[in-house]
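An instance as discussed:

___
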Amino acid sequence: MNRVTSISLELGCCQSRPQPPLPTTGRSPCENPRVGGEVHTGNEQIGPEPSAPPGQPNEVDSRPDARFSFANERTFLAWIRTALALVVAGLAITQLLPPFRDIPGGRRIVGVPLILLGATLAFTSYRKWAGNERALRLGRPIPYSRLPRILAVVITVAAVVAVVFVLLSHEPRL
């Protein structure tokens, strides 16, 4: 059983409902996980992976299942949308928000880290996408990501600082 079929069966994607046969092979998508590729019957032996020069993709399994590649791309695009939202939020805070009373530079203290996080996230998400794509092509596990933790920490800190600034700069009531 190859790795993609094994993952499909572990996730149960092909067990929940019958799959229609593919027009060219007459097999279900679980038996033929590659779009336009060779047919896998599950009897193949997985041997040691040949090594490729550093930075070069290994040609052994160079076409991953399109579903996984598209999922990787959708995840990348979600990170890019998040990065864009962080940059726009940081710009809006620094340029459009009224100044915090008695806190000079308060808008920049809240907005600039969001802009920097957005820029870092955009760059890092591309590297993460490329690493995931490489792992898919080589049949290796997807590398661990620290992005969600970093994103959560920076946004939490920015929110706490913003709340403190708002509470400290309250308008006196008449």
Notes: Confidence is low (pLDDT under 50) at residues 5-9, 12-16, 21-52.
